[in-house]
Design a protein that fits this description.
Homodimer. The protein has 491 residues and is an alpha+beta fold. The chain contains 17 helices and 18 strands. The strands form four sheets. Strands 1-5-6-13-12-11-7-10 form an eight-stranded mixed sheet. It has a five-stranded mixed sheet with strand order 15-14-16-17-18. A three-stranded antiparallel sheet has the order 2-4-3. The longest helix has 20 residues.
């Protein structure tokens, strides 16, 4: 066969992914569970557009002078720069500022949808991915932060993560800011070095103390030979930052007290330690201390956090492709960001929020459920007489009217190929009605699940043809209850 020269090659854009029916179903079920939990806590939904004016993204942009650095941007017909949203928080800040007078304060809201990063893709790292956020705007004290952490614990359990298989970690950026003021990294002129320090600490779980120390100093070369420039701290300053990571104690109150005693040498640090102590008390009073943990290693890499910061971490182990135990780690995070809404308004507006990375959480749940049976597909009504396809469609319609997922085969293949199609659709059973069955007012039902089990015990083709395992012919009037019985058997 000759190939046409004008054919366009079918190519998936680099860093993006197609999503099949099974993944879409899993996303929908997870999103429904998260939405129900958020609404149980009094949050209401909000949807913002995928595009925002580029200047509205503010601190979310890596480089204001190059709108395509980190985000995908274009100019509209008015020559104004617009960008695909980098996350779901910047659009919320813009929405609140535009609608501030009519919104209830505090404003409790959740958002769900895709976000886009114009960054180098890699294994498991995509340029488009799903986030599910919850935020409280207008609550000035850490009771909102404590509630956010507790709601995240409930959310993970709602989607299927068992208690004991996760922990919500919380820290306070004011303690870190206080330490950085004490070592001479305060002020706007040191914003870049502070961010380098924060990102170094954020890698503690992966790199350990030695790796973080290298990133706090001159820099670090990884196994591939790539070099990451460090923050340039001297040994004393680096040691003081690393000491924060050693403040973890057996209980939340003890950890908060230790942080207060050792790292509250500045007013900013003292305020952060006091806020952590208050959160520890609230978490304990609400009986969440076994799920929410004060942990000094949590920093979050973004500059705009102004107080408590938190992460949802999965603690269960799975085996990688080589059989080695690994942990999924963080599947979400957030914190207090009191300055973002104020970018659009004369007054400052306090806010706190949490974002779930849906793709990573889905992958974790898939690992937990990898031994479970594949979800059943629809019942497939086969078509043996093309000129009577309307009768087959009517049978499928009767099943759907009874709430049973069903489809009529619409291809042009014969019986054998139709059965293969039903297998690929993971159909629990097929409905067969040829001319003989139609004349008698009957249908034949074949239970594909039981048939597959029976086939394993039948070695002889003649025996298979004779026994027709898991196949029964019933009156057409009994179609719905008989199919329901098959589905119930495998529920």
């Amino acid at each position: 066969m000759t190939r046409r020269a004008d054919l366009t090659p079918a190519r998936l854009p680099r860093g993006f992914a197609d999503r099949g029916a099974a993944e879409l179903k899993a996303v929908r079920e997870m999103a429904d569970a998260i939405r129900e939990t958020y609404e149980l806590w009094g949050f209401e939904g909000l949807e913002t557009p995928a595009f925002e004016y580029t200047d509205a993204l503010g601190k979310f942009l890596p480089d204001q002078d190059r709108p395509n650095a980190g985000v995908f941007s274009l100019q509209d017909d008015d020559e104004q720069w617009m960008s695909l949203r980098y996350d779901l928080t910047a659009p919320l800040a813009r929405f609140v500022a535009e609608n501030f007078q009519r919104l209830p304060k505090p404003y409790r809201t959740y958002r769900f949808g895709p976000v886009f990063r114009n960054e180098k893709p890699g294994p498991g790292r995509f340029r488009q991915f799903l986030q599910f956020d919850a935020d409280i705007v207008g609550a000035p004290n850490v009771t909102a932060d404590a509630e956010m952490c507790m709601m995240m614990a409930d959310t993970l359990e709602a989607v299927g993560v068992k208690r004991g298989d996760y922990v919500i970690k919380v820290n306070n950026r004011k303690i870190l800011d206080g330490v950085m003021e004490a070592i001479g990294l305060g002020g706007d002129e040191n914003a870049g070095r502070r961010l380098t320090v924060l990102r170094a600490i954020d890698k503690f779980d992966r790199l350990g103390a030695d790796g973080v120390r290298a990133l706090l100093g001159a820099g670090r070369k990884d196994e591939s030979g790539d070099f990451t420039k460090g923050a340039g701290l001297d040994e004393d300053a680096a040691g003081r930052v690393l000491a924060i990571l050693g403040a973890k104690a057996p209980t939340n109150r003890e950890t908060a007290s230790r942080l207060s005693g050792e790292f509250a040498s500045t007013p900013t640090g003292a305020e952060g330690a006091a806020e952590l102590s208050q959160m520890a008390e609230l978490i304990e009073a609400a009986d969440y201390a076994d799920r929410v943990s004060v942990d000094p290693s949590v920093v979050r890499g973004l500059e705009y956090y102004t107080g408590p910061v938190f992460e949802a971490e999965l603690t269960f182990e799975i085996a990688d492709e080589d059989g080695r135990p690994i942990q999924f780690g963080s599947v979400g995070g957030g914190g207090r960001y009191d300055g973002l809404v104020g970018r659009f308004m004369a007054e400052n507006v306090p806010a706190t929020g949490f974002s779930i990375g849906m793709s990573r959480l889905l992958a974790a749940l898939a690992a937990l459920k990898k031994d479970e049976a594949k979800a059943p597909g629809p019942v497939v009504v086969l078509v043996l007489d093309r000129d009577r396809i309307g009768d087959s469609m009517a049978l499928a319609s009767r099943l759907r009217a009874a709430g049973i997922a069903a489809e009529c085969y619409l291809g042009g293949s014969g019986m054998k190929a139709q059965m293969k199609y039903a297998d690929r659709r993971n159909a629990p059973c097929v409905v067969i009605q040829g001319s003989d069955e139609r004349e008698k007012g009957e249908v034949t039902l074949k239970d594909l699940v039981e048939g597959a089990k029976a086939a394993q015990a039948i070695a002889d083709r003649a025996e298979w043809t004779e026994s027709r395992p898991a196949q029964v012919t019933v009156p057409e009037a009994d179609l719905v209850p008989q199919v329901q019985a098959i589905l119930a058997r495998h529920a």
